[in-house]
């Protein structure tokens, strides 16, 4: 079955799930690059802005300017929220345990569900609420060994990242049919422009190895992955987009275990299985319900 023959919802699930899988080596590559946070933010912002712009240019051609203008003021707000989520994630890892950051980020689907319910009046079925709770539990099990009291400042940054991510996807739902992914170019420029203020010694050039990993991560993987994720709200409620985003946590953790040789605990394995299993079962249930609805409509049509 070709992509064009898929249902509206199936397209959304495929695009949104592919994004986290593409960016899943993010945490691993950040470890391999090993730059100070301000330097990482600067190069991440600059290169991702270039990568996002190339994607927009290839997709839109001579209509590129019109694509940006179509996003309007909402698009600028989306770019700002994406910038805040970047800062929250990087600075959260600086001031508290990585496990705390991931555990708080796992609350993004719940935040998105509440924001959508309050501002957009979107009602989620019971199975989605159950999936959110189970995925939150599973992610907590994955990072249990790396979690702890941490710093209130680091936890606050992580909460900022989770809230910004959820608010970003929810805000996109206010402009149905408008693809906000081009505004990630602006978000990258915002990150790059503000990052040097965090650095005491200015911006330094990375070495050849660091530059290679930066190009792979920030010029290729992040622009491709987040372009797909940012298109998710065109097809799915923001809570479901945030839910699928948790795939990045599970698969990203597997990358670190595999490449760096870290041995996961049995509890962490169970947590990963719970997240993936929950998303798989929910997907199968949704697909079956969609098929039944289609079969019920077609005979009467």
Automatic annotation (TrEMBL):
GO CC annotation: membrane
Alphabetized InterPro entries for the sequence: EamA_dom (IPR000620), EmrE-like (IPR037185)
Keyword Cell wall biogenesis/degradation: no
UniProt KW keywords: Membrane, Transmembrane, Transmembrane helix
Domain of life according to the entry: Bacteria
Membrane spanning residue stretches: 12-30, 42-59, 71-89, 101-119, 126-144, 150-171, 183-205, 211-229, 241-260, 266-285
Domain EamA: 11-143, 153-280
Pfam families recorded: EamA
Protein name: Permease of the drug/metabolite transporter (DMT) superfamily
Organism: Modicisalibacter ilicicola DSM 19980
